[in-house]
Write a structure and sequence with these properties.
The complex is a heterodimer of chains A (about 300) and B (about 325).
Chain A lengths: L1 H33 L6 H19 L3 H22 L9 H23 L12 E3 L4 E3 H23 L1 H11 L1 H6 L4 H23 L12 H14 L5 H23 L6 H19 L9
Antiparallel strand pairs in A: 1-2
Chain B lengths: L1 H5 L4 H17 L4 H24 L7 H18 L8 H24 L5 H21 L9 E2 L1 H40 L2 H11 L1 H6 L4 H28 L1 E2 L1 H4 L2 H14 L6 H19 L4 H15 L3 H10 L10
Antiparallel strand pairs in B: 1-2
Helix pairs in contact in B: 2-3, 2-7, 3-7, 3-10, 3-12, 3-13, 4-5, 4-10, 5-10, 7-10, 8-10, 12-13, 12-15
């Protein structure tokens, strides 16, 4: 019985893990290129969720089409914040960039709250369900998982096969060296920040398929923290590492939940959240470069 | 001896500000609550600044200490309130619990997190904070997510009269004392071997190590001091004053951000900075809450961004540049 429950939850964990992976790739990309931890990460996920909600409820546009819209809007936001704020903070001490990204997050949350109010919202796509012997899976979750795989593959090919992707990797390795080789480093910073934010906003679209009524201006905080755990697990500056770490994290989270729920007298949900953080803590202790990180 | 005292001249303006605040609050009716709020922010900024200002490490999980301080006070009072002969001593037992919990966590954190640098350090600190909060909620220790409400215990032990006085006046008074203590410790560290060692760490940690400085030891001293002061602030400003503690209210990263904003507004690494920053932040927050309730964050966020981008050295950093070479310079660091 418990094994069946565990297996069913692990399937859900894997599907959610793909979305976690995409959600973290943006964080890792920005850290890798600019050495800035985006503490306002969750707010961008929240923006993606609200884009989906608005398109679906007000205009009746399918969430599948919301994905490219979210990417474009996210990139626009990324370019905007890069040229107004982040560009001046690349060489500044961490204190400045951490606080600036946090303030950007607060700004987004408050603006969204001003427009939509602080209530919890949600939408129902109504695609139906697949019934397996061990569990029931809504088809929308499978769409989300496929979407995240496609995005991850697309990013992989962009990084490894195109000139621009190669330039981004060069800046991650050594920004001075890349500059000497004729890479326009300033533009790569701007582009990577914009793509990072675009990916994050896009992951917000797919996340809405896992939280039926959980869309709220302040929903992002918990995903910021999860993204930290996943990013460190994946080696912090490696977007592919982040994707696989997301899958692993989804599995561990949902698996641990089932096991904690068997212990009498505890609240399994917060305990699962705390497990993720203790995991991160010990990972930083034994292998600060991340489970999947090189060197 | 005279020469030694002149090292501590910059403490004069800080103490003058605290004394003025205290007198305003004490003698002008209706001002005490606002002055107490300002003292709370100044004390937090001052305590946070001891570690960050001298080492350059950003402790993003600082609120852990404040929260543990509150829990220490809550546990101390709720365990010992039935022993009537202790009287007011239960507050001191609570404070000892608070300092004990905070030093335990500071030592654990410094053992693990201080070996990390930059972003990894910030993330590790956040992870400890969130991990602890959800662990308390999940494992249902110390009342779990229901928290501890100990106003009843306080009244049972000390009577209604004394408890009211404690929460309305003495808790805030203690925050003043802690703020002064933090300022004094800060300048003492700055003027001693610890300060020189930490300046070396801030400028170039590897070079400092090569020169034979035990960087971990000095970082731990500053971290522990900063954490214990934070715990004391939590124990009084949240513990004794509110007489309840809920994990969802105390382990909130927004309070760390408030510390950072205060220090950055005033000037990171300066002695007077957190006081000035605390006053600016506290007054504007208080004023905005009256004028535009509900919109404080919407207004604060762009201001923070503008300050970071245009004015990163803070008010005192700016004043310091202006007064360089004048007799005033020795009072301002």
């Amino acid at each position: 019985m418990i094994l069946q429950l565990l297996a069913g939850n692990l399937i859900h964990g894997l599907l959610l893990g793909g979305v976690y992976g995409v959600a973290t790739m943006g964080l890792s990309l920005i850290f890798g290129v600019m050495n800035v931890v985006n503490v306002g990460h969750g707010a961008f996920i929240m923006v993606g969720a609200f884009i989906t909600l608005t398109l679906f409820t007000a205009l009746g546009i399918s969430p599948v089409l919301a994905i490219p819209v979210a990417l474009l809007m996210g990139m626009a936001l990324g370019f905007f914040f890069f040229y107004t704020v982040m560009r001046r903070l690349i060489k500044a001490p961490e204190l400045a960039s951490l606080l600036a990204t946090f303030a950007i997050g607060i700004l987004l949350e408050e603006v969204v709250k001003l427009i939509f109010g602080a209530d919890f919202r949600g939408y129902n796509w109504g695609l139906g369900k697949i019934t397996l012997p061990i569990t029931v899976i809504p088809i929308s979750k499978i769409y989300a998982f496929n979407g995240s795989i496609v995005i991850a593959l697309f990013l992989y090919f962009w990084f490894s096969k195109t000139r621009l992707g190669t330039a981004v990797r060069a800046v991650v390795e050594d920004s001075e060296g890349a500059r000497v080789c004729g890479v326009n480093v300033g533009w790569i910073y701007a582009l990577s920040f914009a793509i990072g934010i675009g990916l994050t906003v896009m992951s917000g679209v797919m996340l809405t398929m896992f939280i039926p009524v959980g869309i709220n201006p302040y929903m992002g905080g918990v995903y910021t923290l999860k993204a930290f755990v996943i990013a460190v697990l994946g080696g912090l500056s490696s977007p592919y590492g982040a994707f696989f770490a997301g899958l692993i994290f989804g599995l561990i989270e949902n698996g641990a939940y089932v096991l904690f729920a068997q212990i009498p007298g505890v609240a399994p949900f917060p305990l699962t959240v705390s497990l993720a953080f203790w995991m991160l803590f010990f990972l930083l202790l034994v292998k600060p470069t991340g489970l999947l990180g090189k060197k | 001896m005279i020469k030694n005292i002149s090292k501590y001249y910059p403490l004069i303006p800080v103490l003058a500000v605290y004394l003025t605040m205290f007198l305003i609050g004490f003698y002008i009716p209706g001002m005490w609550q606002m002055v107490a709020l300002l003292a709370f922010y100044c004390a937090l900024g001052q305590s946070w600044n001891i570690f960050m200002g001298m080492t350059g490490y950003v402790d993003f999980g600082y609120v852990t200490f404040i929260a543990l301080g509150t829990y220490g006070m809550a546990l101390g009072i709720s365990y010992t309130h039935q022993y009537e002969w202790l009287g007011i001593g239960i507050i001191f037992i609570g404070l000892i619990f608070a300092l004990f919990l905070a030093s335990l966590s500071a030592l654990l954190e410094s053992f693990i997190a201080l070996r990390l640098r930059g972003a990894y350090f910030a993330i590790a600190c956040i992870s400890i904070n969130e991990g602890l909060r959800h662990f308390i909620e999940g494992a249902r220790i110390w009342g779990g997510s229901e928290g501890i409400i100990f106003y009843g215990a306080l009244i049972q032990a000390l009577g209604r009269e004394t408890s009211n006085q404690l929460t309305a006046f003495w808790a805030d008074f203690a925050v003043f004392i802690i703020a002064v203590l933090a300022a004094t410790l800060n300048i003492y560290y700055m003027r001693s071997k610890i300060g020189y060692a930490l300046t070396a760490v801030r400028e170039d940690e590897d070079a400092a190590k090569v020169m034979g400085i035990n960087t971990t030891k000095y970082k731990t001293i500053a971290f522990l001091t900063s954490g214990l002061l934070g715990a004391a602030v939590g124990a009084f400003a949240w513990g004794v004053k509110l007489a309840h503690v809920f994990p969802g209210d105390v382990f909130v990263i927004h309070y760390t951000i408030e510390c950072i904003v205060i220090v950055l507004l005033g000037g990171a690494g300066t002695l007077l900075g957190p006081v000035v920053g605390g006053l600016i932040y506290g007054l504007s927050k208080y004023w905005l809450a009256v004028v535009l309730p509900g919109f404080q964050l919407l207004i604060f966020a762009p201001i923070i961004i503008i300050v970071i981008v245009i004015f990163p050295e803070g008010v005192i950093g700016f004043v310091k540049q202006k007064t360089k070479g004048t007799p005033l310079a020795r009072y301002i660091i």
